[in-house]
Amino acid sequence: MRPVAIFRHSPIEGPGYLADFLEARGIPWRLVAIDAGEAVPEGPEAYSGLVFMGGPMSVNDDLPWLAPAFELVRQAVARDIPVLGHCLGGQLIARALGARVTRNPVKEIGWGEVGVLDNPTARAWFGGTQSFEAFHWHGETFALPEGAVRLLASPHCANQAYALGRHLGLQCHVEMTEAMIRAWCEHGAGEIAASDSPAVQSAEAILKLTPQRLPAMTAVAERLYSHWIGGLRHD
Fold it and tell me: Which terminus has fewer CB within 10 Å in the chain: N or C?
């Protein structure tokens, strides 16, 4: 089986639980470290699927790797090679497919409830889950690509997830581990302190809530990832 390519855009925003999930199922994966200067592959043919993780940059920035990444997404979608995006990754996929990425009404950092929409596509991805506490760290949001179905919404961000066939874009971070949350809180302490958004929690509050909320979110991530790998190429 060809490996899943996982694109990392920041040293502390790696695959997290997704790596554990893939390894437990014997699915090979390869890290493409964009943050370390690794080049975006010219085509998706060497991979069974593509995953784009988060990052502090914007997909509207003038960065040399963004245009090749957009083109790679378009090629993968055209060839029906599954694509998965987390936060920045979900925005990157949306932008590649012609949707706008704009500033969200408020910044979201920390734990917050998201609701699963009542449509057949959302049920296919989330089963009977009606809502869950997700982890957030974003200031921008995506519009839906043409043909995509909205899956999740939160009080502070209308578009929290979309699906387009076997492709999935997430605004929230279901991939988190406790170690990642601690690292982000430490690294992002200044950003938290500088924000007056009603949707930004203190690092103390985030870490206090993590033990009770992380296991349930990881169960949702397992459901999503299980559905997504069903579309991986096995040739």
Answer: C
How many other C-beta atoms are found inside a 10 Å radius of the C-beta of residue 43?
12
Question: What is the DSSP-derived secondary structure letter of residue 67?
Answer: H
CB-based burial label for 162 (10 Å; 0-12, 13-18, 19+): buried
Distance of CA 235 to the CA centre of its chain: 26
Parallel, antiparallel, or unpaired: how do β-strands 83-86 and 49-52 relate?
parallel
Mean pLDDT, the chain cut into blocks of 10 residues (235 residues total): 98 98 98 98 98 98 98 98 98 98 98 98 98 98 98 98 98 98 98 97 98 98 98 88
Q: Annotate 80-96 with b (16+ C-beta within 10 A) or e (fewer).
A: ebbbbbbbbbbbbbbbb
- pTM > 0.90: yes or no: yes
Rg (CA), the chain: 16
Residues facing residue 137 across a β-bridge: 109
The answer to whether the beta carbons of residues 182 and 140 sit under 8 Å apart is: no
Beta-strand ranges (E) seen in 66-209 are 83-86, 101-116, 131-142, 149-154, 157-164, 167-170
Q: Are 182 and 203 in contact (CB under 8 A)?
A: no
Query: Are the beta carbons of 199 and 113 closer than 8 angstroms?
Result: no
Task: State the CATH class of domain 4-229.
Answer: alpha beta
Q: Which residues of 176-192 are buried (b: 16+ CB within 10 A; e: fewer)?
A: bbeebbeebbeebeeeb
| HSE (side-chain half, CA atoms, 13 Å) at 212 | 6
